[in-house]
Design a protein that fits this description.
Layout lengths: L1 H9 L16 E3 L2 E3 L1 H15 L17 E6 L4 H21 L4 E9 L10 H11 L4 E7 L7 H4 L16 H11 L3 H22 L4 E3 L4 H13 L6 H5 L2 E2 L5 E3 L7 H7 L15 H10 L8 H15 L1 H12 L25 H11 L5 E2 L5 E2 L10 H6 L11
Parallel strand pairs: 3-4, 3-6, 4-5, 6-8
Antiparallel strand pairs: 1-2, 7-8, 9-10
Helix pairs in contact: 2-3, 8-12, 8-13, 12-13
GO molecular function: nucleotidyltransferase activity; sulfurtransferase activity; tRNA binding
Pfam family, one: CTU2
InterPro entries: CTU2 (IPR019407), Rossmann-like_a/b/a_fold (IPR014729)
């Protein structure tokens, strides 16, 4: 009987593509089987739909309009490499049809070797990517400790040692000291993500980019939605997962928000016209970190959410999509200009933390408070100078540092 089953499996007729009914399918896309060509068209359409604002019309413009500058953070992972490839295709098609383009890119890789010596330098990987996609714009490799160049983004993290070491100094050591002083792996990863986002948005403003194109998929947005809610930033989900204006002075766009991560894992292996997998230098690193982050005491909230959704998207992709759709129904109160921002993450404050927020501020900002005759602390600071609940919990216990709340 076992031998019959083996023979039956070997002689199974490949499933044909449901759209063209000619080529064998390479992926079961939620409700239909698609071949490589149809899957390529499907993936491109999802990205182009989200980039509709930056298309070029056939009729010549009445005025001389320069292409708009967009910043694309490149981690050399599957998602960011796929996004770069899709944008390059759109860019080349615009040139072929109208000899003009609606955008140019500033592609930036954040080198985090200062805090993780095992991470290879990004210059060589960036050169390989630039050779594959020339003419798109600028390609930059920026070290994470370069965040100290943007004082407005890092003044909440400056160390008050009383020795006047605010300007200059060893940025790498400052960064190591900051992350090393945080109490838990979750808080370290949380602050690291905040620094990375603040650096990217600072670079976007510096290079006159009007928007940041994040490579987040449906899966990644679902992970962030639950992770940020668990960390105490559920109020800021609309700012972190929606297309449009952000509190950082640039727009946030997610062109891959309608695609699952497992779909992109198949896409990078296709011939489009050559596989993208060799350019995904960071994919092996991400896989190694996921295997290392076993479920246990040391796992972070972000790693836990990653493991959960990577497992659930294989059998129940609709659940992942529903999480993102539900988050998309949340709306923000007021405009971007009139919001009270957190001193750490720069996102709008919840304003409703109550005793938990006050308790965290009391313990973390004792030197900025004065005790009156009744033993109560007088907080001579503005209401907008406080932290949100999520950041207050992340930095809670960082005793060696004075946080300017």
């Amino acid at each position: 009987m076992a031998e019959q089953n083996i023979i039956s499996n070997e002689n199974t007729v490949p499933t044909l593509c449901k759209r063209c009914s000619i080529s064998p399918s390479v992926i079961n896309l939620r409700t239909e089987h698609l071949c490589s060509d149809c899957f390529d068209k499907y993936t491109r359409s999802k990205c182009i739909k989200r980039m509709e604002t930056y298309r070029v019309r056939y009729n010549p413009p009445d005025t001389d309009t320069s292409p708009r500058r967009l910043l694309l953070p490149l981690s050399f992972g599957v998602s960011s490499i796929t996004l770069l490839h899709l944008l390059n295709s759109q860019f080349q098609n615009q040139l072929a049809r109208t000899t003009r383009t609606g955008f140019v890119l500033v592609v930036v890789h954040i080198d985090e070797s200062a805090i993780d010596p095992t991470v290879p330098p990004g210059e060589e990987s960036m050169r390989a990517v630039q050779e594959r996609f020339p003419g798109l714009g600028e390609y930059l490799v920026v070290k994470l400790e370069g965040i100290y160049e943007f004082s407005s983004a890092v003044k909440a993290f400056e160390i008050d040692t009383g020795g006047g070491g605010g300007e200059g100094g060893d940025w790498k050591e400052k960064l190591k000291g900051l992350l090393g002083a945080l109490p838990t792996p979750t808080s370290r990863m949380d602050v690291l993500q905040i620094l990375r986002t603040r650096l990217i948005t600072g670079l976007a403003r510096k290079h006159a980019c009007e928007a940041v194109l994040w490579g987040d998929t449906t899966t990644r947005l679902a992970e962030r939605t639950l992770a940020e809610t668990a960390k105490g930033r559920g109020f800021s989900i609309p700012w972190q997962t929606s297309d449009g204006d952000s509190p950082y002075g640039v727009k946030f766009l997610y062109p891959l928000r309608d695609l699952l991560k497992k779909e992109l894992a198949v896409y990078v292996s296709l011939d489009v016209p050559t596989p993208l997998r060799p350019l995904c230098f960071g994919a092996a690193e991400e896989e190694g970190k996921r295997k290392y982050a076993a479920v246990g005491k040391g796992i972070t909230i972000d790693e836990l959410m990653t493991q959960y959704f990577e497992g659930i998207e294989k059998q129940y992709p609709s659940i992942v999509a529903n999480v993102v759709r539900t988050a998309g129904k949340l709306v923000t109160e007021g405009g971007v200009v009139r919001i009270r921002r957190c001193k750490i993450c720069g996102l709008p404050r919840d304003g409703g933390g109550g005793e938990l927020v006050l308790d965290a501020e009391t313990k973390l900002g004792e030197s900025s408070s004065e005790v009156n005759g009744n033993g109560n602390r007088n907080r001579g600071k503005k209401e907008g100078d406080s932290m949100c609940y999520g950041c207050a919990r992340s930095v809670h216990g960082a005793k060696p540092y004075e946080w300017p709340l």
